[in-house]
Amino acid sequence: MYRNLTKGLYLMNNDPVITYKFREIKNVISSYLIQVLPQFHISPIMMYALEFLRKHPDCIAVDIANEFGLTRGAITQLLDKLEEQGLVVRKPHPTSRRSLLIQVTDKGNHLINEILDAYHQKIEQLFIPYTAEELSVLKKLLEKLPL
Predict the structure, then answer these.
(1) Can you give the pTM of this predicted structure?
(2) I want to staple 70 with a disulfide (CB 3.0 to 4.6 A). Which of 7, 21, 74, 95 is the partner?
(3) Is the CB of residue 28 less than 8 Å from the CB of residue 126?
(4) Could you read off the pLDDT of 46-68 as tens digits, one per residue?
């Protein structure tokens, strides 16, 4: 394992094209999300918060604040906007009178699915020039990434 890790680091340090391409891919894919979101009348931070809430049901506002490095005031404003649009609900916490559970509504889940469908369609455009064989190799390589 150590030998493979050392080999991988050696290859990465001596071939900056790989790290450059990954940064470039990240930037392009991030820009795709920003291009998709306006039609849904939602900001990137709203989308990130909804995805976080979907992955972590029954969390509280401080969990979101910690995840995104936002202040309590910023989180309150964010949750107010999400709640006004019917995308989340705040419910009493079962064990803490000072906290509220935040849950994604059915409408919020539906919106996330719509956004992700549009986002994935945009990303899929990157792969149009590839053959089935090339996509198969790419898939195998990506599956090896320790993410």
Answers:
(1) 0.79
(2) 74
(3) yes
(4) 999 999 999 998 899 999 999 99
